[in-house]
């Protein structure tokens, strides 16, 4: 039996002060962490997210760059929503985000 916490992709967790925003329609959510193929969003008590729903959104990064994406809601966990992406985030974006967090928040 595989451990449920084993991950196929590295996850980058953000300090709250620099977390990217997920923008869907007119709503904006803080992103807890990202991986190549997924995003964990702080949804609070927003029950708009239902497992298996599809979504289209934009990630707005702290440097002002934006990236459009789509996928499915795979899990809800308390105030969090886990999203699987239809197409992976580019490695160049992930690399830049890792360096930003490591450089500015070495003890995070």
TrEMBL record:
MF-aspect GO terms: cyclic-di-GMP binding
InterPro entries on file: PilZ_domain
Residues covered by the PilZ domain: 6-81
One Pfam family of this chain: PilZ
Protein name: PilZ domain-containing protein
Biological source species: endosymbiont of Galathealinum brachiosum
